[in-house]
Amino acid sequence: MMDLIYMGLRSLKRERIRSLLTVIGIVIGVATVFALISISQGTNKFIEEQFSKFGADKIIILPGGTETSLAAALVGKPFTDREVEAIKQIPGVELVTGVGYRSMEVEYKGKRVVMMVTGAPAKNFRRLFEDVQGYELEEGRYIRKNSYEAVVGYLTAHKVFPKKITVGSFIYINGKKFKVVGIMKEVGNRIDDTAIIIPLKAFQELTGEKGKYDMIFAKAASPENVDNIVERIKRKLKALRGSEDFSVLTSKQMLERIMTIMGGISIVLIVIAAVSLIVGAIGVMNTMYMSVTERTREIGILKAVGATKLQILTLFLTEAAALGLIGGVIGIVIGAGVALAAESISHSAGITVFKVYLGPELFLGSLLFSILIGVLAGLLPAKRAADLDPVEALRYE
């Protein structure tokens, strides 16, 4: 067996250029698949962690039917004080609060930017953003009263404006002066990290829409009763609004929808990447066929001195596996580098949701997969070599 392995590796060494070109195909395929799986798994784990912080007892109510996006909250029929109060009366609901969202012009140190501004009630501010949504403050405090105060996201404070916003700074929202009293820690997605949150009363003064809300947050007293509460909220709101022009979502439902979308995207990307692996496999097969043809006389000599079909098969499969192994190792290194570079670039652009997962099972699985690709690609050429008639092979020139 050791002789066969030695002969196979020596053959690859003898045909360096051809072996190198064959390996490149495997490298490209493995690197692409490794990078995509690494980013996909890392991002999925990050999203799951964020939703686990959010908790299973949280409920989000949006206008806009079955839509789940913030855009739906902006174009759908807003909620009213009457509907918020009705949800508060449902048994098992611990906290209910209406929230407003609008695009507004924000100015700081002479630079003006159109940003999404959130209006939240000062009374439940801490519970809404810390207990319900799992946010944390980097510095400062939360809004305590219905005055012109603001809490800003991490990117709003550090990246959006040329000069850093600090606690005590003043920003102008639609021309009104607000004092920044708190800065939130980095959450991991651009929407939250570019947030500007002001008291609901001040928000409604800016929009001129008193008693209207673009979204309702609710918290159940017990996670076990969430599904029952959701059904009660749906019945109550449908009776008040006349139709089911809203969505009631739990954190579990939101996670399932997001993971379904992420899963579909991952499958499409991996299928695209698999094309390059198929090209690499074809390269291995072509190289092995050429090797069998060139070494027909050598195969005849081996059979003449007693080599069995299994030994000839092993000889050429060793060469194919070696090509897969070398391509796999290089591809994994390049793939890990590409994934880490993509994470770094996305983070510098403020998109911190992209994470890289580099677990040992990913390295081992990718390596075994690349070897398997090499062996499968070399199977037909190796069988052809094993089936050669020794007499005909010895006559081959």
Summed up, what is this model?
Helices cover 59% and strands 18% of the residues. The chain contains 14 helices and twelve strands.
Report on this model:
The protein has 397 residues and is α+β, with helices and mostly antiparallel strands. It has two domains: 2-51 and 256-395, no CATH class; 78-244, no CATH class. The protein is 59% helix and 18% strand. It has 14 helices and twelve strands. The chain has helices at 2-14, 16-54, 70-75, 81-88, 125-132, 154-160, 190-193, 200-207, 226-241, 251-294, 296-304, 309-348, 360-386, 390-395; strands at 58-63, 79-80, 93-108, 111-120, 137-140, 149-152, 170-173, 176-184, 196-199, 212-213, 215-220, 246-250. The strands form two sheets. A six-stranded mixed beta barrel has the order 3-4-9-6-8-7. A two-stranded antiparallel sheet has the order 2-10. β3 (93-108) and β4 form a beta hairpin. α1 (2-14) crosses α12 and α12 (309-348) runs antiparallel to α13 (360-386).
